[in-house]
Amino acid sequence: MDDDNTMNEFMETNNIEMTRNLNGKVVKNVDYSHVKSYINFYFKKFLNVLKTHQGESVVEILLKEFLSIPKVMTFDVRYIGLKDFKILKRYIFEIEWMHLITKKIDKTFFNIETRVINREIECTATIDLGKGSVLPFDRGYERVKKYLNKLALQNEDNYTNT
User: CA 76, CA 94: separation in Å to the nearest integer?
Assistant: First the structure.
């Protein structure tokens, strides 16, 4: 499972421009439809392993790719279960975010949903930030970045004030 090849293959087939910043991270010049296409492409490729430990790694790699995770934060992905509805399947992953200095833990949930549309499997992803805030990952990952930065700074402020 070589994730860099997966990303490069997707970028080439969809003619998406990409550059690398100073840290070697891929910076994509894409709109939300391309992000949604990438998520669909990416998870269809790994659909058969989502319920396994390897599936947790697949989600972890995607989160690292799209989120600028603050250096004071680490996270752990854990597969929780599958909800099988009439028209879709929802793979649920719990993400534990931990602040390295304060050791405070915050939990969010990442869902991968699969539907069969015109005999074709389509994958989408949502992220649940708690308090009823469920975002489609393709349009909401920038908001998740802000959430993580706020969480990192808030926890540091609490730590320095005590």
Answer: 8
Distance CA 127, CA 130 (A): 9
3-state SS assignment for residue 69? coil
CA–CA dist 72, 152 (Å, integer) = 7
How distant, in Å, are the alpha carbons of 24, 41, 47 from that of 44? 26, 5, 5
Q: For residue 45, which amino acid is it? A: K
* Residue 95 near residue 75, CB atoms below 8 Å: yes
The runs of H, that is alpha helices, within the chain are 3-13, 32-45, 53-66, 137-161
Per-residue pLDDT tens digits for 57-70: 999 988 888 888 88
130: tokens are: 């708690």
CB 72 within 8 A of CB 78: no
- Has this prediction a pTM greater than 0.90? no
